[in-house]
Task: structure prediction
Amino acid sequence: MTYCVGLCVNEGVVMLSDTRTNAGLDNISSFSKMFVAELPGERALVLMTAGNLAVTQTVWNLLQQGIWLNGSHHRLETVPDMFHAAQLVGAAVRQVQQMDGAALLAQGIPFECSLLLGGQIQNGPPRLFLIYAAGNFIEATEDTPFLQIGEHKYGKPILDRVLNMKTSLNEGVALTLISMDSTIRSNLSVGLPLDLAVICRDALRITARKRITEEDPYYRAIREGWAGALREAYLSLPKPDFPLI
Result:
């Protein structure tokens, strides 16, 4: 399993993924699930993946080679806007399904993948999409400016309560790390190290990219500070005002 989360707010885009893959209790490895397509000054896109690792790696390789979309051969570096970029990723997913879906099914393996695509292309705003295994997709909106894939339930409450379009990128990084830490604490299939990418609005480049390990001082401060704040909030809550015995 995995967990990836993306935010798209007024100031730009924040993307965070874990690196753990689990093919059984005795076969746990680390693979990066974050991929970047960047032409500084023109576009910056980040793709994060969850699901069958062989499927998602094949999708990325097809995107690097280029595939046909609406009668033209494209890569993420050549599509005209973010909507077409999401269409291209969806087309790559469907192509992999056509190539490998039947063989996987014959082995009793479902065709599973989901992907987050976030970024900005010149002359357009920052955008964030979630692409499903069928190749269709949805987009983050002002009402819900975040999207998740993988083991998402543990990291969702903090985003639902706090995140909005006016959230700064600095706050967004902290929120994604809290969301990830909550997931890591509750699910063994999600784990460090983490991959973080930030795209400031109109910078048209990856403005920050970082591999976060257990020893990272900022991550440790976030983890310990959030745990302490939760304990303090719990202890400050009113006690029951009715008999318990």
About this structure: The chain has a mean pLDDT of 96.
